[in-house]
């Protein structure tokens, strides 16, 4: 018990530090991005200058996502529950993703199954963050292209829905598979190791579960189970 209390106190200090550092970074980062965006729109710059500015904006956006992950982890907000049709939400996410510059055109994206036409009660923005992270991770595991599929199914027995995000990518080596949801663990060169930790934090706050299966060189499937009415939401539902 003492060890658990000590670890909780240490994590509280880390969270406080992360919150302060993230805020200190966010303000100048916003200025850098807006300044670069202003220069991009200035027609006096030639093509090579425009490429450099696009790179600055892209890196600023990447760092901003790191800051957001720090803030979300350090100051996690309980979900705000509203009616959400999970298949419609993910269709919107995929449509925007396929139109973004981060999407790899060599990756073919499909959707299968159905979660039923009853809504679940969830925090739409938090779920958007989870599934966007899973989609991005899947594509990053397929640098030379492949297939990404999002499958929906209804869990009538447990009154929930199941969403699986599968890819045909590199897979997760067995020696690191136990660490993928751990805070600050990452195999990415520029990663912070909070993406999947935040995803797990969000799903568990919805009284759901998140797990994965993976085979090296054959791909990974991440499975999210969500109740239609989370226990933490029931008191506020009509």
Chart the SSEs and their pairings.
Blueprint: H1 2-40, H2 47-74, E1 82-84, H3 86-99, E2 107-113, E3 120-122, H4 124-140, E4 146-155, E5 160-167, H5 195-205, E6 209-215, E7 219-227, H6 231-234
Parallel strand pairs: 2-4
Antiparallel strand pairs: 1-3, 4-5, 5-7, 6-7
- Name the helicity range: 40-55%
Gap from first CA to last CA: 39 Å
Structural class: alpha+beta
**What is the overall pLDDT average?**
79
Please provide a written account of the structure.
Helices cover about 45% and strands about 20% of the residues. By secondary structure, it is of the alpha+beta class. The strands form two sheets. Strands 2-4-5-7-6 form a five-stranded mixed beta sheet. Strand 4 and strand 5 form a beta hairpin. Helix 4 (about 125-140) packs antiparallel against helix 5. The longest helix has about 40 residues, at about 1-40. The mean pLDDT is about 80.
Brief write-up:
By secondary structure, the chain is an alpha+beta fold. It has 6 helices and 7 strands, in the order ααβαββαββαββα. The chain is 47% helix and 20% strand.
Give a quick set of tags describing it:
single chain; alpha+beta; five-stranded mixed beta sheet; two-stranded antiparallel sheet; 6 helices; 47% helix; 20% strand
């Amino acid at each position: 018990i003492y060890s658990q209390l000590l670890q909780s106190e240490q994590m509280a200090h880390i969270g406080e530090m992360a919150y302060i550092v993230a805020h200190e970074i966010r303000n100048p980062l916003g200025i850098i991005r807006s300044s670069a965006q202003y220069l991009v729109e200035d027609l006096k710059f030639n093509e090579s200058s425009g490429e450099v500015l696009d790179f600055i904006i892209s890196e600023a956006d990447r760092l901003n996502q790191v800051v957001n992950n720090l803030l979300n982890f350090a100051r996690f907000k309980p979900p705000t529950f509203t009616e959400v049709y999970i298949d419609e939400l993910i269709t919107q996410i995929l449509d925007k993703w396929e139109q973004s510059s981060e999407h790899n055109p060599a990756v073919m994206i499909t959707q299968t199954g159905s979660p039923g036409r009853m809504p679940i009660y969830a925090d739409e923005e938090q779920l958007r963050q989870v599934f966007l992270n899973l989609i991005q991770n899947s594509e990053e595991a397929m640098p030379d292209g492949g297939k990404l599929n999002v499958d929906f199914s209804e869990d009538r027995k447990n009154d929930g829905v199941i969403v699986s995000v599968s890819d045909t990518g590199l897979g997760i080596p067995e020696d690191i598979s136990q660490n993928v949801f751990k805070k600050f663990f990452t195999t990415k060169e520029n990663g912070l190791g909070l993406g999947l930790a935040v995803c797990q934090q969000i799903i568990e706050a919805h009284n759901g579960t998140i797990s994965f299966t993976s085979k090296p060189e054959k791909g990974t499937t991440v499975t999210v189970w969500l109740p239609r009415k989370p226990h933490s939401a029931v008191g506020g539902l009509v």
